[in-house]
Amino acid sequence: MTSTAPVVDFAAALESVGTWLTEYISANHPDIGRTGPICPFVAPSRKNRTLETRLRLVGHTPTLELIEEIARSSLREYERTTWQGRNPMLQAMVVVLPDLRSEDTGLLDLAQERVKDDFVARGLMIGQFHENCEVTAARNPRFAVSRAPVPLLAIRSIALHDIFFLADHPHWFRAYREKFGKFFGPDSTVMDPLLVERYRLSEQAHGS
Fold first, then answer.
1. Least enclosed by CB within 10 Å: which of 5, 54, 151, 187?
2. Strand, coil or helix: what is 152?
3. Helix, strand, coil proportions of the chain in percent (round to 5)?
4. Concatenated DSSP letters for 85-145?
5. Contacts by 204-207 with C-beta closer than 8 Å and gap 24+?
6. Could you give phi then psi for residue 185, rounded to 5 degrees?
7. CA proximity to 56, closest of 48, 47, 67
8. What would the 3-class secondary structure string for 155-167 be?
9. 62-90 tens-digit pLDDT
10. 5 near 140, Cβ under 8 Å?
11. pLDDT tens, 130-186?
12. pLDDT tens per residue across span 81-121
């Protein structure tokens, strides 16, 4: 009996992700709406060897429950990892799903929605990236910023600019405020007026 399961080229998948991290995520882009790389943490994280990569297979009949469990198990693994660098802001994990077919990438979007609460409660962000991803840049809603050649999840610590992604729900905003609220006081040192504006709007919406 012969197997009908597709052959997964792990080396090619990892090489593709590595190139994407270098030439796209760590690079400037004219449509991002600001100066600097798409993600300012990836290059320092890789330089300090605090970016971990994991491969996970979903099989030829993936389910939402399976991908959600991959995300949740990755959270547990992230929290148990012994990181080489000392800066927790540079600790990142990329979970690559090389056999997730293009027509099934919507499951990745749904799984990310289901687990985001738990990640944020632990001071972490989780984002999904794939060739069909419709997530747009915070400063340019016409730019689908989260496109990737191989489906993956990315996990990292909540950062100052994440107010853009944590403003919509009160429990997300509370987690953000606990960590960064001190930067938005009367003598705020936040230089980006758009961050300050979004923070103030969230305060008004969810309570100060």
1. 187
2. strand
3. 45, 15, 40
4. SS-GGG-EEEEE-TT--GGGTHHHHHHHHHHHHHHHHTTEEEEEE-TT---EETTEEEEET
5. 205/167, 205/170, 205/173, 206/170, 206/173, 206/174, 207/170
6. -75, -170
7. 67
8. EEECCHHHHHHHC
9. 999 999 999 999 999 999 999 987 888 99
10. no
11. 999 999 999 999 999 999 999 999 999 999 999 999 999 999 999 999 999 999 988
12. 999 878 889 999 999 999 999 999 999 999 999 999 999 99
The two tokens of residue 80 are 């148990």
CB-based burial label for 83 (10 Å; 0-12, 13-18, 19+): middle
Amino acid residing at 51: L
Q: Are strands 152-157 and 124-129 parallel, antiparallel or unpaired?
A: antiparallel
Tell me the C-alpha distance between 143 and 34, whole Å: 12
Residue 1, pLDDT score: 43
Return d(Cα 94, Cα 127) in angstroms, integer: 10
- Dihedral (C-alpha) 10, 130, 118, 136: value to the nearest 10 degrees? 150
What does the alpha-carbon distance between residue 40 and residue 26 come to, in Å, rounded to a whole number? Answer: 7
pTM: 0.93
